[in-house]
User: Fold these one by one.
Assistant:
Number 1:
Amino acid sequence: QVQLVESGGGLVQTGGSLRLSCQASGDIRSINAAMGWYRQAPGKQRELVATISSGGITTNYADSVKGRFTISRDNAKNTVYLQMNSLKPEDTAVYYCNIPTNWGGYWGQGTQVTVAS
C-alpha cells in the first residue's frame, strides 16, 4: 500500500506562483513508477495536468499549463513536485497526485489552489 500527501496549495493572485509537493510513503516498489498531477475544478471533471516518468526524465503537460507548470521528482525523497507559475483564475482547483496502477492507482487527499482574479 501507498500513502500520498499533497501540500503547498493556497490562495494567490493572478500571475503568482505556488509549488505543490506530493510525498509518498509505503511500498517502495509501488512508488517507483510514473506519477501524475490531476486537478478538479468546481463543476468539472478531474483532468490530467502533468505526468512524469519513474526516472524523472520524461514529462508531459496538458496544453492549458504548458510553459507555466513544471513537474519534477526527487526519488530519494519519494516526492513529486508541481511548480506552478503565471497562475490564472482558471487554474483554481483541487490538485491531486497519483500513482497509476492497473486497478486505478493511488491518490492523495488533494490540496486546494485558488487564484484570485
Note: Helices lie at 28-31.
Number 2:
Amino acid sequence: QVQLVESGGDLVQPGGSLRLSCAASGSIVARNTMGWYRQAPGKQRELVASITSGGSTNYADSVKGRFTISRDNAKSTVYLQMNSLKPEDTAVYYCNAVASRTLVLYSWGQGTQVTVSS
C-alpha cells in the first residue's frame, strides 16, 4: 500500500548533521533514478539530490558539498546524508523515483520534517 516511507528527520542546530532514509517497496530503488525532494512553506517542491541506476549523482547548487545521496539496492533504501545544516534547509523532505525533470513515478509519501534552528 505504502511504497515510499521517509524517516530520520529531526530538530537540529545549525552546523549539525542528519541522515534521512527512504524505504521503498520491491525493486523500486534498484530499477529507477531516485531523488530526494524538499518543500518549505510557501515554496515549490524542489529536487535537491538524485542518483541514477548506474550510480551517477546530481545535487542542487544549494546543497552541493554538504549533502550526499546514496542507495542500498539490497535493502531497497535511499539515504540522504546532510552535513553543515543551515536554517534554510528547513523543509519536509520526500523521496521518489524520478521519471523526468518534472515527473515522478509514485504518489508522494508523508515525508519527514527537518528543522534547523538554534
Note: Strands lie at 4-7, 11-12, 18-24, 34-39, 46-51, 57-59, 67-72, 77-82, 91-97, 112-116.
Number 3:
Amino acid sequence: QVHLVESGGGLLQPGGSLRLSCAASGFTFNMYAMSWYRQAPGKERELVATINYHGESANYANSVAGRCTISRDNTKNTVYLQINSLQPEDTAVYYCQVLILLQAYWGQGTQVTVSS
C-alpha cells in the first residue's frame, strides 16, 4: 500500500529554519511528482510546493517563494522541504502528497509551530 510518513516538525523561533522529510513506500517513487501541503487551524489546506519525477523542476506557492526548497532523493524514496526565515504564518500541519491514478495519498502530517 502507498504509505507516506512526514517528520521533522517542531517548535521554531521566527527567522529559524528547518527541513521536513517524507518517507514514501508502496509505489514506484521515481515515476511520480511529489507535493507538500500545509493546513493551519481554521484554514483550507494549501499547496506549498511540488517537485517533478526526477527532481529537475519545482513550483512554489507565492507565500513561500524564496524561502522554501523542495527536493527529493530517489535512492531513498524521500522528499524534503527546507523552510528558511520562518514566520508565524508558517505555523501549520505539513503534509506530503502523491497523486496516483487520480487518487491522492497523504501522510499523517507533521506540526510546525513558529513562535517567539
Note: The two ends are 40 Å apart (CA to CA).
Number 4:
Amino acid sequence: QVQLVESGGGLVQPGGSLRLSCAASGDIFSINTMGWYRQVPRKPREWVASIAIDGRTNYVDSVKGRFTISRNNAKDTVYLQMNSLKPEDTAVYYCNYRTAVYEYWGQGTQVTVSS
C-alpha cells in the first residue's frame, strides 16, 4: 500500500499564497499520477490538478493561472503552489496517488481563505 501525508494548509487572506506538500511512502511504483482534490461540506469532492510521472500537468479551469502543481520524483512528493487565493478556494485539500490498478488518498489539509 501507499501512504500519503499532506502539509502546508492554513489560514490566508484573499490574494495571498500557500504551498501544499504531499509525501508518498510505501510500495511506490515508477508509473504513477499524483494530484490534488478539494472538498467543502455538502459538496462532491472536486478535482483540482494532476501531474504524471513525466511532468505533464492538468488543471481545473477555475485555478488555471493561479495554481501550479509540481513533483519531486526522487522524494515521491507532490506540491501545489496556490497564488492569488480567493474565498471560494476554501476547502479541505486531499492528495491523490494512482496507478493503472490502485488509488490512494491522504488525510486532507484545511485551506481557509478569509479576510
Note: Residues 69 and 101 are 23 Å apart (CA to CA).
